[in-house]
Amino acid sequence: MCGVFGVFNSKTPAEDTFYGLYSLQHRGQEAAGIVVAEYNKIKKKTLFKQHKGMGLVAEVFRDETVFERLGGYAAIGHNRYSTTGSASSASNIQPFSLTYRSGSLAIAHNGNLTNSRTLRRELTELGVIFQASSDTEIIPHLAARSREKEPIHQLYEALLQVQGAYSMVLLANNQMIAARDPYGFRPLALGKKVDPLTGELAYIVASETCAFDIIQAEYIRDIEPGEILLIDHLAVANEKPTSLFLPPSERKARCIFEYVYFARPDSFIFKHSVDKIRRNLGKNLARESSIQHQPGEKELTVVSVPDSSNTAALGFVRESIKMERPARFEHGLIRNHYVGRTFIQPGIHSRDIKVRSKYNIVRGVLLDRPIILVDDSIVRGTTAKMLIKLIREADPKAIHLHISSPPITNPCFYGMDFPTKRQLLTHMFDSLDNDEEEIEKIREYIGVDSLKYLSMQGLMNSVPSFEGETCSYCTACFSGDYPIEVSDATTDKDEND
Amino acid sequence: MCGVFGVFNSKTPAEDTFYGLYSLQHRGQEAAGIVVAEYNKIKKKTLFKQHKGMGLVAEVFRDETVFERLGGYAAIGHNRYSTTGSASSASNIQPFSLTYRSGSLAIAHNGNLTNSRTLRRELTELGVIFQASSDTEIIPHLAARSREKEPIHQLYEALLQVQGAYSMVLLANNQMIAARDPYGFRPLALGKKVDPLTGELAYIVASETCAFDIIQAEYIRDIEPGEILLIDHLAVANEKPTSLFLPPSERKARCIFEYVYFARPDSFIFKHSVDKIRRNLGKNLARESSIQHQPGEKELTVVSVPDSSNTAALGFVRESIKMERPARFEHGLIRNHYVGRTFIQPGIHSRDIKVRSKYNIVRGVLLDRPIILVDDSIVRGTTAKMLIKLIREADPKAIHLHISSPPITNPCFYGMDFPTKRQLLTHMFDSLDNDEEEIEKIREYIGVDSLKYLSMQGLMNSVPSFEGETCSYCTACFSGDYPIEVSDATTDKDEND
Amino acid sequence: MCGVFGVFNSKTPAEDTFYGLYSLQHRGQEAAGIVVAEYNKIKKKTLFKQHKGMGLVAEVFRDETVFERLGGYAAIGHNRYSTTGSASSASNIQPFSLTYRSGSLAIAHNGNLTNSRTLRRELTELGVIFQASSDTEIIPHLAARSREKEPIHQLYEALLQVQGAYSMVLLANNQMIAARDPYGFRPLALGKKVDPLTGELAYIVASETCAFDIIQAEYIRDIEPGEILLIDHLAVANEKPTSLFLPPSERKARCIFEYVYFARPDSFIFKHSVDKIRRNLGKNLARESSIQHQPGEKELTVVSVPDSSNTAALGFVRESIKMERPARFEHGLIRNHYVGRTFIQPGIHSRDIKVRSKYNIVRGVLLDRPIILVDDSIVRGTTAKMLIKLIREADPKAIHLHISSPPITNPCFYGMDFPTKRQLLTHMFDSLDNDEEEIEKIREYIGVDSLKYLSMQGLMNSVPSFEGETCSYCTACFSGDYPIEVSDATTDKDEND
Amino acid sequence: MCGVFGVFNSKTPAEDTFYGLYSLQHRGQEAAGIVVAEYNKIKKKTLFKQHKGMGLVAEVFRDETVFERLGGYAAIGHNRYSTTGSASSASNIQPFSLTYRSGSLAIAHNGNLTNSRTLRRELTELGVIFQASSDTEIIPHLAARSREKEPIHQLYEALLQVQGAYSMVLLANNQMIAARDPYGFRPLALGKKVDPLTGELAYIVASETCAFDIIQAEYIRDIEPGEILLIDHLAVANEKPTSLFLPPSERKARCIFEYVYFARPDSFIFKHSVDKIRRNLGKNLARESSIQHQPGEKELTVVSVPDSSNTAALGFVRESIKMERPARFEHGLIRNHYVGRTFIQPGIHSRDIKVRSKYNIVRGVLLDRPIILVDDSIVRGTTAKMLIKLIREADPKAIHLHISSPPITNPCFYGMDFPTKRQLLTHMFDSLDNDEEEIEKIREYIGVDSLKYLSMQGLMNSVPSFEGETCSYCTACFSGDYPIEVSDATTDKDEND
């Protein structure tokens, strides 16, 4: 996963992008980069400048003089997710910047192409060279081979050929272009900001709306599935960006996992408040829960895994009360504020030092109580197992683990960094015949007194419906129902991991 | 403020100390250091090794080979709080390590001596040189001038001469010593851990018990006010450290602000759970609150400033419900996980970018609602003012700011890094004759609909009482009642800030 | 200018390349990189790994763990010359590494293509994208578009299309390829080394033979002009690399400036000892010199600008003695050993601090003496001017500046980093009608008592002749006689500088 | 060994000191620091600021903003020599800066105290603590214990108590003080510079006069043995620094090894040109040499080990010619310009990679010739042995190693970083009864055809004589004649090394 950001017609495009990327840091912690478009008075055209590096945004842009050097009037930026192995290379840091027939191009991309292997093979057969291992490089190659004159038409032609998930923002000479795949897998929002001094209008594009908030920009609308939006100086003057639309897909496939876990709760994703949907997940989880207060026991205590499941836990409590099965919300786990990329683990004390470094228990609110621990999801299960071990040290009466989403049973081929099927917790047990037995095995493995996942129905009841759509979400990781054929991507997955 | 940590008889003392300091990071982010005691087989005695640097613990100890180099069987460590100006110098990074008549000594100190200026003058008159500007350097000078033979007796003599607040841990050749001033201003706890492989016992000393949790050590008891505790190989063999006691002070003076804000909620401070006391503060604040639900308004919504006032806010809600003035707890503010020391603020967009970089609002839970914002304290007021401005963007019906402690009206001379009196928010208005008028001025300045501080009585009702003590806490910052005369320190304060 | 190095069938290819690049550091100080070919047992094929960075070789490879990570059995490396402006970007650091139809390719290149502008335009018209601004990227694009199957044949086809100067080494899957343009502008030598432990044979390719010496390899022969040499495991087994040859050029054009200044004196360049040729230059300069000892003056003292003109100065003295015009050789200038890339110049004391930081005078051997200062060349003239000013502080009787090459009157389009014509010292005065007048103007500008350049004839008499060649050298910078048409390159030059 | 520098009444004292230390880099490469005296307008007194770090001067002061921060009107600086083991610690980086009874003090010291162990014991008995392991810390302790009021008088009292070698420069509040021990072991020179813009006079103190040249300052005179020189604003106004003198020693003991090897040839040391004395050493070596040209052999070729023995080699050749035993001077060894601290040696190819990284041979001038290799001294012999092995690869007829100083047979206790007696090459063989036999063993070990050391008499004939002194030099390393009793220091040496 990744975060993308773009701004057009700002006095401080690099600074805006820095703050935007900073607020999107949760979407990718491995590397960050900014490409700026600046008008060069001598050459009388727009040229690009860039600064990229491995690490958090605040680390890559630690030196303030970088911003003086960058200047410009527009910029795009990218946060890359932490991946492992060969992919962790400097040549993969985005945005990619290049020159081609029509001038300069830079691209920042969030998503995963499902026909990348085929396209790559076809392109290399035509004599194309690839300097990075990322999917993203395919798109400028396709655009550069188009016979169209305008970058937006070249990109249109390119995107007709690619399949899969993409939300991207590009600089093409003196234009900014934003595009989202027809299925709408990944979010992409459009915002604007009026400079308080000059009254000039800047357009902004970002993966999540929290990036607008930090620079006091305003959320206008989403880039629609299949939309290719062009922002140039004319668009600014008319206050009207123009759009092309790719042929519509037969269905939509918004990533439901953005709502479940990935996006920030203060963002609007797919036009809706993430916080509100997480609350719904918690409420529906409460409705489905069978945990009852036992006579003689202390009050049922709902604890969230901070901060990602805070809102779901609150929703759970609220609904429980409504259902007259009262439970109290408690901060039973404390999250260390200083966890970061630089964290080393010398002389490993125990296998659970990673969990201990991130969380600690508040003994007073856990001791002797029946705990309903609300978490958003379980991927590999190793963290959950160690977290439960940590909580046990506070001697709770019981731990009932409630997950505000269904079991993850399938890998993602559209950008979410799930492991291969083999590494998913659910895989350990999937020779079993029925779900109940499988969940009992997982419960035992993790070491809790009971384990409850939200049902698929509960999940679907929690998310907004989009009028006129038969299918609005991608739920493949939970259901195995893949919106786009994945044979190509699967093989990739197997080879790379 | 600072954090101190020490461990004796461990196979991995530097690693233990690293994790301990990591969990105490909130007590000081400017610099960190570790001194290790290692037995040198050639010289047949214990020698010290050290590694120190500016920055967070995880930054200073980024290179794992440091731990291989350090080795040893005992270690002490120190986190220094971020201070400003001349004090931010490398020569002030603790622990201080030195050689003197009786061998090697290293010291890590949390606190502030109130007669440091006088002692410094007296010592320099005797020909002593000072290589750092910190108070701490005075103590080894006094110890080195003692005619006693044993380091612990030298330290005893030294501590008879100093006044003020100190919790410290030292290495003296092959011994570890922990000491706490007779008033007991700052916390200091004793723990132990049995090595799961060798069965060997290690003793641990730390500012807060959360440092025990991270390395799976067990909290035994506090170092008592006035206690000087000696841990050596004999103490380990007998499982019995030995103690000296300084002459008792006429009263105790535990820092009540540790409970209000400074310590981690998962720690036990002065033998009691911080989380529980913060909850009491919230409960008492609810009892004193006069905010009532207004007919036609949405439900009263309690929002905490994450994470420091989370528990107080929960306590507030719990008590409100009990009082039949129901209010709902909401996560209305989101704290950015990536805030850190390295954060720069290029091209300052607006004066409130610092607050925006740390917090964002969750619009859905704030819009049109009457908000009770619970915060732990207000020092300068600048952050509070900007936070309120940010919350206003979500269009709440009203903001009622509730502070879970009384107004801070006086500087601290015992280690808390409050600004001078002039810089405290309360000072702006203290020519006014009565408190009500002053609070109205503050309310107006911060820009809230109403402002409520917890009363002194409410504060005292929230904290544990210690049997047989007439006075247990230092409340000077709230009350001006200074346990130790401060003429010397005051002057220092004026000159340094 | 740049340095290239490659090694095939070594146990320590990255280390070998590190030492090779270290000894070729004078050919490029701005950036360095190594690409290693390693057999991946899981994927059952050779994969590439790389490490690149800005700075000196010893800075880029400061961390020894890099070598553990790199591993492999073959490697190529590159030193990039310090250039200014937009070119100083991380995306230009070589070797370039990429994947294409036939697998993996990496390339390290020394030289300059003269039809790069045309080729770039043609390629972009075909839809090719360029990610760097360097000429080098053109070559893999051309190779990738070839329909040939074998990388060496693809490269052959590519090189048929490019014009200009190139000496390059490539990794293509499990092969190493070295190539040199038909004119032979830049040097490229072939060496070998037998592993003292295993007896295995490694082949080595390097810009200069000094790179063989440092790793105790043996110089076999030059890569011939127009030769494309293939080294693979078969070549190693047979002790016989195979070669293709590009169509021969009508003449050769070995860069004579490599002999004059650029190469290390301990290298063999174009099969001949650089030291010996520099001595010839000094001897011929002595023969042409008209400086006579004046009665009453102290002995004529020959001083070199260390270390580049040391050998020429020795040759000058030797020949002078033979001609019975005795002169003594003296170390009148001391070169600071610590001059390096990291050198900053705070608070510029005077315009000549750069020269003062690099050289100091030995007053005793200069005072009151007539000095013959031997230098190899003058490019811009600013350093020479300041150096003379420095020497004047020692109060010599006179300074006779003797240059062991003719005046540089024309820019280089084949890789030497000369400035544009406008910036050459000779340009300042080239409206003058005859050379004598021009040299008088230069003498005055630099501030010496007399100025003597070596004649073109003297230069040609100093360098070896190659049998059967009508023209063996490129002397364009001195003569304006460009071996390859330069219209394309000229324009480039004008635009970039 | 170390380099010291100080400047008083400059507009750019930190920059001056940077350049001074840069030119003194050869005196110490391990660490560097600068302390600046700046007038603080608010506190109305001079305060000190500092910047110190491990590494070369250009590395420690890589960030130009440091100079903006430092400011001030006076500064002192220090280069520390690379030492091994425990001493390589950050707490030992000079200048030391401290506060004491009379205000602020900073000290930069070159030398070694011979009674440091006794003084340290006495001081610790009095309750003094030591924060570094360096001798230097003793001096401010002694000064601070003086009852005198003026820093110069305090320092006078302190220096009466110390024995050994010291050349030092101090800042004491608004004064600069320079001091040199009565024996005059280490050099220390006084210079001045008139600001070209303001006409203001600055005084400068430096270990060597090459530090004056780089900033265009003028050498006035040496700080005399036993002199303590005070420079303050009054001294500047009167153009007359004032001096105190310590009681004279019965003899002088200028370090003769400064002339032989350590100092830069362009410096004046002890009032005389180092270059000239090195030439004398070469001349006297020629007079003592018995190598004759053999019939049928090529011309005798004199090669220096660059750059340290260049001048001696030239003197050797000059004298040989005068003696009608002609020999030609050749640059047979090339010194790599990029050798530096950062140089790592991955995957050690052979034991001689260190020598190969620093030097390479010029085959043409060595092949088949009888070589007289002139070197300044042999300490351990390991480098010489490997260098000879390298030269042998060029197949010289013979190698006659000539050393321009006598055998080093004794360790230095006055600051030169020689190894212990056990590690000196001469020690390997000193059970032998006569010198000839010993030299034969060394010759064999190093692997040369003949080995010749300059005689003690030859050495003494080469250095200037000082009128009225019975003994002017310390020759202890050659002769064992120690000017100051060394029992205390010896023990130190044994223990530390």
From TrEMBL, chains A, B, C, D:
[4Fe-4S] cluster binds at residues 255, 412, 474, 477. Keywords: 4Fe-4S, Glutamine amidotransferase, Glycosyltransferase, Iron, Iron-sulfur, Magnesium, Metal-binding, Purine biosynthesis, Transferase. Its EC number is 2.4.2.14. Mg(2+) binds at residues 308, 375-376. Pfam families: GATase_7. The keyword Iron applies. PROSITE patterns: GATASE_TYPE_2. Binds 1 [4Fe-4S] cluster per subunit. Gene3D superfamilies: 3.40.50.2020, Glutamine Phosphoribosylpyrophosphate, subunit 1, domain 1. Residues 2-234 form the Glutamine amidotransferase type-2 domain. The keyword Secreted does not apply. The active site is at 2 (nucleophile). Pathway: Purine metabolism; IMP biosynthesis via de novo pathway; N(1)-(5-phospho-D-ribosyl)glycinamide from 5-phospho-alpha-D-ribose 1-diphosphate: step 1/2. GO terms for molecular function: 4 iron, 4 sulfur cluster binding; amidophosphoribosyltransferase activity; magnesium ion binding. Its cofactor is [4Fe-4S] cluster; Mg(2+). GO terms for biological process: 'de novo' IMP biosynthetic process; purine nucleobase biosynthetic process. It comes from the Bacteria. HAMAP family: PurF. PANTHER family: AMIDOPHOSPHORIBOSYLTRANSFERASE (PTHR11907). In the C-terminal section; belongs to the purine/pyrimidine phosphoribosyltransferase family. Catalyzes the formation of phosphoribosylamine from phosphoribosylpyrophosphate (PRPP) and glutamine. This is Amidophosphoribosyltransferase. It comes from Pelodictyon phaeoclathratiforme (strain DSM 5477 / BU-1).
